[in-house]
Amino acid sequence: MKLVKIDKSQYRSVNNQVQIGLVAILAILSLVFGQLMIYFFGVKPLPGAESTGNFHLNFTGVILALMVCSLLVRNLREKSKFYEVYYVWQLKQLQNKIFRKLKALQQAAKDNNRDALVILSFYYQSLALVYELDNNTLTMSNVNNELDKLQQAIDAAGFTINTDEFTPEMLQAF
Questions:
Q1: Coil, strand, or helix at residue 127?
Q2: 135 secondary structure, DSSP code
Q3: pLDDT tens over the chain, length 174 residues
Q4: 93, 116, 123 from 111: Cα distances, Å
Q5: Long-range contacts made by residues 165-169, C-beta under 8 angstroms, separation at least 24?
């Protein structure tokens, strides 16, 4: 995966639209599916009686709505308008995979393992990109400090590293 320059304002706009749209669709479809399930399969309430026990039908409605939202996301991710949102989502997933192996990567980087240095360079630069897009200014200084330390380690080892060298398969060695 390569790091791509993303237009922050367009990303934020489309990301907000996607999030609001998915929440609205999930809420509306949950209600609709739940009510349809109760109408066709539920126990009819009696005047003055206790709960009808239709919770499982409402829950099934939520699950069906979640499935529809998942199908919608799966189909929309290929559209050019949603490229940036999907790219950042994939980048965050990859960052999570790297984070799970971060201790091993940092140890290997101390031993001047070139692949570990490439992975860490990609990781910290991708964090900087995502934090910038998400306006996460609180932890940006930490990321910049880690990038500086990493660059010093790369220079001390005598390597020239480019994040374009990174491939997700490199993680399998750690």
A1: helix
A2: T
A3: 889 899 999 999 999 999 999 999 999 999 999 999 988 888 776 666 666 778 899 999 999 999 999 999 999 888 888 888 999 999 999 999 999 999 999 999 999 899 999 999 999 999 999 999 988 888 888 999 999 999 999 988 888 888 889 999 999 988
A4: 27, 9, 18
A5: 165/118, 166/1, 166/118, 166/119, 166/121, 166/122, 167/1, 168/1, 168/94, 168/97
